[in-house]
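This section describes the prediction task in plain terms. A model, or a person checking by hand, is given the sequence of a single protein chain and must write out its three-dimensional structure as a string of tokens. No templates, partner chains or ligands are provided. The sample shown here is typical of the held-out split.
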Amino acid sequence: MTAFGLALLFGGLVTSLAVSAVGLAVVLWGAVGWFRDVLPAPKEELIPIRRDETPARIIARSTRSVDHLQPGTEGHRVYIPIEVHPYSAGLLGGIVGGVGMAIIACLYGLIAHGSLWYPVNLLAAAALPSLAEAGPAELNAFHMAGFLVALFSHGIISLLVGLLYAAILPMMPSRFTAFWGASWRQFCGRP
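The expected answer:
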């Protein structure tokens, strides 16, 4: 019951507050029932064991062994990083990528809606209810709270994507090195 209640509780985060309320009630009901089984004294159930009259059969040990695959041989698909990029490279890449995305988004807002603040306010509308219900004229105007929320969320997401990219880049297939964004020297096979 507790696990089902937790599923409802978290499911309500994306559906409705009522589902979360029902989930919380089910979690509390299941937890109280669960705790009553073990508190104040644990309850145990003894099960009698019957000994069969027939003697136990001896099982012979197998002589077979397990063949372990070695990375890189016989088509083994594991990708073990030979070199690991520093996390600072991922952070720097996240900053550069975030600035590039912000420039492109602001150019879109300027061309399509006549305002640099349109994409900024759209991003901030995910966290600010006042901007979520705003009309086009209000989205084209500058809002300090919207700017700060958009700057913070875009910056954090860009840094995390950069860190993730730095962590998984060494595990990407080497035949697509140029596609993954590795350096030209690595693409040419130079150290």
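For orientation: Confidence is low (pLDDT under 50) at residues 183-191.
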